[in-house]
Amino acid sequence: MSAVEGPRQWSRRPSLPRAGLNFLSPGVTVGSGHTTERRRIDRFLAVLTVTRAGVDRMTNGTSDIESVFREAQRIDDHEERWAYVHRACQGVAAVEKIVLELLEISDGLTGVTSGSPSEEPQPKTITTPVREAEQLGRVIGRYKLLKLIGEGGFGTVFLAEQREPVRRHVALKIIKLGMDTHRVIARFEVERQALALMDHPNIAKVFDAGATETGRPYFVMELVTGESITDYCDKHRLTIRERLDLFSQVCRAVQHAHTKGIIHRDLKPSNVLVSTHDDHPFAKVIDFGIAKAAYATLTDKTLFTDHHQLLGTPVYMSPEQAEGSEDTDTRSDVYSLGVLLYELLTGSTPFSPEDLQRAGIAEMYRVIREVEPPLPSTRIVLSSTTLPAVAASRAIDPQRLRAAVHGELDWIVMKCLEKNRARRYESAGSLGSDIGHHMRGEAVLAAPPSRVYRLRKFVRRHRVGVGAGATVAAALIVGLGASLIGLRSAVRARDAETMARRQAESALEFISEMFGAVDPKLARGHDVTVAEVLDPATAKVAQSFSGDAEGEAVVRSVLAQAYSNLARYPDALREFERAWKLRQARGQVNEPEALTLLHNWGATLLASGDVSRARELLQRACDQRAATLGPAHGDTLETRSVLAYAKQLGGDLDGATDDIREVLRDQERTLGPNDRGTLESMCSLADMLGSAGKLEEALRVAHEGATRAASAYGPDSDLALMASSIEAEYLDDLSRYEEAATLLERVVRGKEKLYGSNHPETLVSLDLLAGTLMDCGQNERAIDLRRAVVDRAKQTLGEGHASTLTYMNNLAQALRHAGQLAEAEPIYRRVITLRREQDGAQAEGTLVALSNLGLLLLQREAPREALPLFREAADGLRSTLAPDHWMLGVALLNLGRCQTALRDYAVAEATLLDAHARLERSLGPSHGRTNQVRAALAKLYDAWGRPEQARIWRASK
Fold first, then answer.
1. CA distances from 647 to 328, 658, 844, 879, 935 (A)
2. Per-residue pLDDT reduced to its tens digit, 112-160
3. What angle in degrees, to the nearest 10, is found between the helix axes of 470-494 and 530-539?
4. Among 266, 659, 666, 914, which one carries the catalytic annotation?
5. For the CA atoms of 39, 41, 42, 44, what is the dihedral angle to 10 degrees?
6. What is the Cα–Cα distance from 846 to 189, expressed in whole angstroms?
7. pTM for this one?
8. Catalytic: 266?
9. In terms of Cα–Cα distance, which of 926, 923, 924, 872 is closest to 894?
C-alpha cells in the first residue's frame, strides 16, 4: 500500500478453498393428485405459460386445445397424428405448436405412475417423433436416403445420394413434424435467395429445398465431413491459442452470413464441423439459414413470424430467444458464439444441460434470461474432478489452465454473454477482432469498464527521502542548499559577480537559520522533525530573499516538494502556487525550472485528489517539455508517465495502460532498460495491470522490475525495494501469503537499513507485512507489529496524519479479529473523530472507519447499533467510488451481514448478491473477499430456512 494511499484499511482474511457459483433451482412442482393425468395437466399449464401465447390469440380456446390434444393422443401413427393436429387447429400456428409440444411431453411421460410429490418426471428431450431408421432407401425427389447421420433441434439429417442433374452425396435434412408446411416452404423460398448469395469457405452451402409426399419440408445441403468443433479440439489436444485460431474462423463465417442478412439461431458444436486440410484444422458452419427459413422471413409483405416461438438449443440460446422475442438480431448469434467459446476454453457450457433439464421449463427459461453464469476461469476451478482431463485435452498443466483463461478471455466471453444485448459485441466480426487483439497482446475491447482503482504508491515513486530525526532533516536542507548553489552558478555565468555574491550570501544565511532548529540548545533534548524545520523557515522565505524573486521561487519550489513528501498537501500546494506566481511575474513560465515546478505541482495535486487540475498542469508541462526538449527526453518521458497515472485516476484505465506501455517502450529505447525512470514506469505498469485485475501479469512485471533494479542499483536500493514491495502485494492478492511474507521481511530489513526504522517508507512496508502475517494466521506477531507502527507513526508524523490514522485503523482491525474488542473499539472511535474533523464525513477514510466500527458492534451482537454505520458507509462509498471498486463491495458485504443478523432476509439477499457481483468483477472469483460473500450468502440461506440454496453457495467456495 502506497504512502499516498496509506496501508490497507480493510481487514484481510485467508482465502477459503476456491469455487464458483452454481445456480440450480427445483423443477415445476407436481400437484397433489400425483397421477399421470395430473402431471399432464401441470405440464399443459406450464406450456401455456411458457409460450406466452395468450388465450386471446387462440381462436379455438383452451378447452378446444385440450380436446384436440386428447384426441391426438389416441392416434398411434405419428404422421397421421400430425395431419390431424394440423387440420384440427385450422392453420393457427401458435395453437398447433402448443398441442404438438404437449404430445411430446405426454410421450415422455408414458409409463409414469403415481408416487410421492418429489417424484417429478423430467421432461423428455424433444426429438423427431418418426421412426427415421425405417426410411433408409426411400427416395425423396431427386435424393435417395442412404444413412442416418444425425438429429438436431429442427429435424433429422440423412446422408443422401443426388441422382440428377449431377450425381453426388449430400446431406438432406427433414424438418420435424409440427411446422406449417406451406408457410415454411414459402419462407425458405425467400430465404434461399439470400442463402444463395453466401459464398464463404467456412459455410456449408444449401443446394435445394422441397417437401415430402406427406408435406414435411426438407433441405439439401453440402455434405460436410468432420467432427464437432469441441470433439475435434479435445481429440487433437489443441492448445488454447489453437482453439482461438479455429474459433476465429467461425466468427468470420458468422460475420459473412450476417452481412447477407442471415441469422443462424442455432450455433452449437454439432453445427460447426472441423476436419484437417493441409495439416491445419478447418471449420465449416452448417445449417446456416435453416432456423430462420423455418420460422422467419426476409420480406415485409405476406410472410410473418409467429410471436414467442422458441427456437434454438436451450444451452446455447440467447435470453431474447428464450423470451421468444420477435426482433431477435445478429447479437443473438454473438451470444451463442460466446457459449461456444466458453465450452472450448473450459470443457463445459455456462449452464449444464442436465441442470437446465432438471429445472423444468419455466425455470430453465428464467435461468437463461436472468442468471449470470460463473466466469470461465471460475468454471475451470469448479470442475475439480474433471480438471485434469480438461487440461490434458488442451495440452496444458491444470494449474496453468485457469491462469491462461483468467482476465482477458474471461472478459471477452462475458461480454458475449451479456443478458442485455446492447452490451454485447455489436457483431461476430467485432468478437473475432477482439480475439485477435488478445492473441497479439493488444488491448481488448472487453476490458472491464470500472475495475478497482487502488490509489497507488505515487509519492513512493516520485519523491526524495524524508526522515524524522535531526540528521535526516539536515540532509534535506543540504539538498535545498545544493539546489540554490546550482542556481547561483547559472547566475554567475550571466550576471555581475557582486550580484552573485549577494545572492549566495542570502542563501547561506537562510540555510543557517534552518540549521539553527537542530541546535541541541534550541531543540531542548528532543529529535527535531522535518516539519519543525520547514514551518519556521517557510515563514521567513520572503524576508530572506527580498528583491530576489528567482531565488525565492527556487526555495519555495523545494519547500513545496518537501511538504508534498510529508503528505502535507495544503502547505505544498500553497508554496507551489507562490513559486509559480513569482515565475510568471518574471516571464519565466517556459524555462526548465518552471516546467519542473509544473511537473511537481501536478504530481502533488494528484496525490491530494485534484485530478482535473493536475491533468491540466501536467499536460502543459508535457507539451512544453516535448517542444523544447523533445518527446523522447527523460524529463518529457517522466511527465508523460505521471500523466498516464493521472489518466488512470480520471477513470480511463485502458488509455492509461496504453500510455504507460508506450512511455515504457520509449524509455527502454532512449534511456535504457535499467534507467531509473524506466524502472519507475515498470512499477506504474504493474500497478495499472493490478487495477485492471490482471494480477498474474502485474506480478510478472513487478518481479522483472525488481530483478532489473537489483542488478543495476543493488538489491537494497530504493528502486529494488519499491518494486519488490509491489511484487509482494500481488503475491498476497493472489493468496500466495507465505511468499509475500518472506519477500516483505526482506523489504522491511532493506528499508530499515536505507531509511531508518521510523521512516514513512519503512512503516508502510511494516504494516503490509503485518497484514500478510494475519493472512498467514500469525495474529499475535501481526498485532505487535501494528502497535509498533502506530507508535512510530505518531512520533514521526503525528496522530492526525492520514497515514497514522490508517495505521490506527489497521491495528483496531487486528485486535478485533483477535477478539480483543474492548481495546479495539476506542481506537475505531478515535479514528472516526479525527477523520471527520480533518477530511469530512464523506471522505473515504471516514466511511471505512465507520464500516469497521460496525463490524465490531456486529461481533458484539449489537446489529441495530451497527446498521446505521453500515448504511452510511455504503451510501457514501457508492457516491464517491467507481461502481466496481472493491471497497464498495466490502461495504455492501458488511451491510448484508448486519441485515442477516436483524433477520431482514430478503433485503440482505439483495445486498449480498450485489456485493458478490461487484467483488467478482473487481477482485475476481478466487479472491478471499469474494469467498467471504459466498460464505455470508450460505449463512443467510441457512438462517432463512433455505438449506438447498445454502448448500449451493457453500459448495461454491
1. 39, 11, 20, 20, 37
2. 322 322 333 333 333 334 444 447 888 888 899 998 887 755 568 889 9
3. 40
4. 266
5. 120
6. 69
7. 0.45
8. yes
9. 872
